[in-house]
From TrEMBL:
Gene Ontology MF terms: cytoskeletal motor activity
Native source species: Pseudoalteromonas amylolytica
This protein's name: Flagellar assembly protein FliH
Statement: the UniProt record of this protein carries the keyword Iron: no
Domain of life: Bacteria
Length: 272
């Protein structure tokens, strides 16, 4: 291993090394706090204060232990009793506070539920008359809305009945003109409805139908049955009116049509 010495990066040996060691300067290692003036640690503490030597002449702190007073048995018992009473008092106060808070919370919840139920019932009782009144009003309005429709239905029904009556009359009147025997059938039906005890009978006919009846029955038979044929221009073809001293039978076409239609409409549940 080499023992070569270096000085400022250059090797030094022999006499040069001896001379260098003789004249080697001793560094000054005495502490000078002034060189730390204006400088501080990362925590802001001044370096002068940090490297300052403690003053040996400063008074050392009193390290004597403090003296505690001597307590008697009675004093210790009193301290224990006071601590016990204080604990009881604090526990009582804390228990009262906890119990009061719990009671208030539970009381609020129970009162809230009871209040809600009472409020619902009270609201229902208060609103029931008003609801019934509104329902009656609504029912009346609905009935009034339906009333025009009901009137329209009734009018349409009556118009249909009248139309059917007119159509029936038109058809029957037309049939009377085409079939003269209709008046003969009406006359027979009227005579059958008369009591047998009737002797003199007046038969009112349309002038055209009167001649038809004369031709059908003949003068001799009409006289035997005491039928007096009387012309009535106000009657329609096919109309027959039979009158006696005690009764009268209307066998006009309008009356017969009305009876037929009334029976038909009554059977169909329609009022004429």
């Amino acid at each position: 291993m080499s023992n070569t010495k270096f000085y400022k990066g250059r090797p030094v040996e022999g006499e040069a090394l001896d001379e260098l060691l003789k004249n080697w300067p001793i560094p000054d290692v005495t502490e000078d706090p002034r060189k730390y003036s204006g400088r501080s640690t990362a925590f802001g503490k001044p370096l002068e204060q940090l490297y300052q030597k403690p003053d040996k002449n400063a008074e050392e702190p009193d390290t004597e232990e403090p003296e505690f007073p001597t307590l008697t048995l009675e004093e210790l018992e009193q301290i224990r009793q006071d601590a016990y009473d204080e604990g009881i008092k604090q526990g009582h106060e804390q228990g009262y506070i906890d119990g009061f808070d719990k009671g208030v919370t539970e009381g609020k919840e129970a009162g809230y539920k009871e209040g809600v139920e009472i409020g619902k019932q009270q609201g229902h009782d208060d609103a029931k008359p008003l609801i019934e009144e509104k329902l009656q009003t609504l029912t009346l309005i609905i009935n009034e809305l339906h009333e025009p429709l009901r009137l329209v239905d009734e009018r349409c029904e009556k118009q249909l009945v009248e139309l059917a009556n007119l159509l029936a009359q038109a058809v029957i009147f037309r049939e009377v003109e085409l079939d003269p025997n209709i008046v003969l059938l009406a006359l027979k039906k009227a005579m059958d409805a008369l009591p047998i005890s009737e002797h003199t009978v007046k038969i009112h006919l349309h002038p055209d139908d009167l001649e038809l009846v004369k031709e059908a029955y003949g003068e001799e038979q009409l006289a035997q049955q005491h039928w007096h044929l009387l012309p009535e221009p106000t009657l329609h073809r096919g109309d027959v009116e039979v009158k006696t001293s005690q009764s009268s039978i209307d066998m006009t076409l309008k009356t017969r049509i009305k009876e037929i239609l009334d029976d038909f409409l009554h059977g169909s549940g329609i009022q004429s």
